[in-house]
Specification:
The chain is mainly α and 246 residues long. The chain is built from nine helices and no strands. The longest helix is centred in the first third of the chain and has 29 residues.
């Protein structure tokens, strides 16, 4: 059987190791995320996204009285799900994960994880203050809110927290299906939190998309920083078994 000649792209990819390719894709992802956030922000500030936002927001409401579509059980579930993106829940989750790392002797990694999540919270708050977009007044709010609208803090914080922790969990597993399950679960939680914010009327859809984009970009940056610091020996690796653990 004659072997077809490889193209220049194929030869380039074959010369790049699996880990190097992952880093390259992550860098591209960060750049694409920053570009996408800038595009969304520009559309929002110019008012070009208003028609899109209104259409999706009203699609989740009854046309006669603007009440939420769906049974009461769905509405209650949406309130429960939206809480998964709140600072309290994400803070407790971060505390539990970092505490587990501390007990297993991975002190520097625990501090790094807390720093990543805390840094994302500072960034989210800064962006909200900078853009200062009003909350939707088109429909009644089904949750109490006090900050500005863009980007969605729940969407951004759930993306960066769940994706960061999901990536760390995936790296500690050897089976590919377990790795995929960890990442997909993190992505699913992030998606549901974002949708719940629009459903409950406290965010415009573009707020949520921008939050997802910013949060995922931050999570990728944290992942890249983790790999870099581990290669330099500044963070514990998953394979290390510290003598002080236990």
């Amino acid at each position: 059987m004659t072997q077809l000649p490889r193209t220049g792209v194929a030869r380039l990819l074959s010369s790049i190791g699996r880990h190097e390719l992952a880093v390259l894709l992550a860098i591209v992802g960060v750049a694409a995320g920053i570009w996408a956030f800038g595009m969304i922000a520009d559309e929002v500030m110019d008012g070009d996204a208003q028609q899109f936002d209104r259409k999706l927001l009203l699609a989740m409401r009854r046309p006669d009285n603007l009440a939420l579509r769906g049974p009461l059980a769905l509405q209650e579930a949406a309130r429960d799900i939206t809480g998964l993106g709140g600072v309290t829940v994400l803070g407790l989750l971060t505390f539990a994960v970092s505490g587990n790392m501390l007990l297993n002797g991975r002190r520097r990694m625990a501090v790094f994880v807390v720093g990543c999540i805390a840094g994302g919270l500072v960034l989210s708050t800064t962006l909200k203050i900078a853009f200062n977009r009003p909350r939707p007044e088109l429909v009644p709010h089904e949750m109490r809110v006090s900050t500005s609208s863009f980007p969605s803090g729940h969407s951004m914080m759930s993306a960066l927290t769940y994706l960061t922790l999901g990536a760390l969990l995936a790296r500690s597993q050897e089976r590919k299906r377990v790795k995929a399950f960890s990442i997909l679960t993190a992505a699913a939680l992030t998606f549901m939190v974002g949708i719940s914010r629009v459903y409950l009327g406290v965010h415009w859809p573009t707020d949520v998309v921008a939050g997802w984009t910013a949060g995922a970009s931050w999570a990728l940056l944290c992942w890249l920083a983790t790999r870099r610091l581990q290669k330099r020996g500044m963070l514990e690796t998953d394979a290390e078994q510290p003598a002080s653990a236990g």
